[in-house]
Specification:
50 residues, mainly beta, Rubrerythrin, domain 2, 4-stranded antiparallel beta sheet, 60% strand, elongated
Length: 50
């Protein structure tokens, strides 16, 4: 049931992280604040399709 998803920075649009998500329990897209190496600061990362 767990699928691999990619997280993309909302500022620079770089895909920095991959993680797993249970699509049965969490139906909406993830928004996580993580460190972006290109922006060199913490930014909101959104879930995108791999």
């Amino acid at each position: 049931m767990r699928d691999i998803i990619l997280l993309q920075c909302t500022e620079c649009k770089e895909r920095n992280y991959s993680t797993m998500k249970n699509k049965k329990n969490t139906t909406e897209k993830l928004n996580i604040k993580k460190y972006c190496s290109r922006c060199r600061k913490h930014q909101v990362h959104k879930e995108v399709k791999p």
